[in-house]
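Sequence, please.
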């Protein structure tokens, strides 16, 4: 079975177990946050910091049930919401005729629904091409037909106890978008 999920229109590494034993073993590692995941994301605008950690709570948005909403620690509405922790490092910055963008390597420490997308929108830098969390009339790189988020790396312990690493290069579609921005 499929051990974890990727949002619709997100490319990259997806882990699938062949046996029930492996499914339970790998799923437990995700629940215990023993899995390291890294995503490549292009966000709208220029992020000035070279890296940052975002720690909030996430819960269903009362205004749009399809979306997750960020709740801050100490906010009375945060009660009962799930903690979400996301770190990022800037890989590159682009400025051109189609707008300003920042390329990030994002590491979610927790695995909440739409976590990266909600956190980036909360910072005011939604994922390029994201129709759900993006802003009205936000710029989109020419030729981008989906959200620019890619699960590029996953590290997990195998059944024998040794760490397994999986890499997925950017799809040709996303690679072309970056080359056009450069």
């Amino acid at each position: 079975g499929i051990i974890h999920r990727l949002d619709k229109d997100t490319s990259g590494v997806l882990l699938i177990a062949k046996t029930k034993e492996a499914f339970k073993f790998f799923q437990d590692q995700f629940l215990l946050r023993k899995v390291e995941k890294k995503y490549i994301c292009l966000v709208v605008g220029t992020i000035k910091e070279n890296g940052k950690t975002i720690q909030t709570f996430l819960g269903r948005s009362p205004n749009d049930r399809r979306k997750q909403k960020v709740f801050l620690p100490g906010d009375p509405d945060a009660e009962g919401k799930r903690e979400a922790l996301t770190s990022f490092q800037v890989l590159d910055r682009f400025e051109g005729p189609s707008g300003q963008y920042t390329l990030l390597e994002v590491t979610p420490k927790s695995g909440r629904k739409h976590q990266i997308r909600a956190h980036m929108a909360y910072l005011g830098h939604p994922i390029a091409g994201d129709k759900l969390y993006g802003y009205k009339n936000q710029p989109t790189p020419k030729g981008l037909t989906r959200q620019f988020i890619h699960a590029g790396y996953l590290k997990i312990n195998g059944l024998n106890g040794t760490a397994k690493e999986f890499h997925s290069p950017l799809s040709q579609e996303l690679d072309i978008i970056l080359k056009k921005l450069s």
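The longest helix spans residues 20-31.
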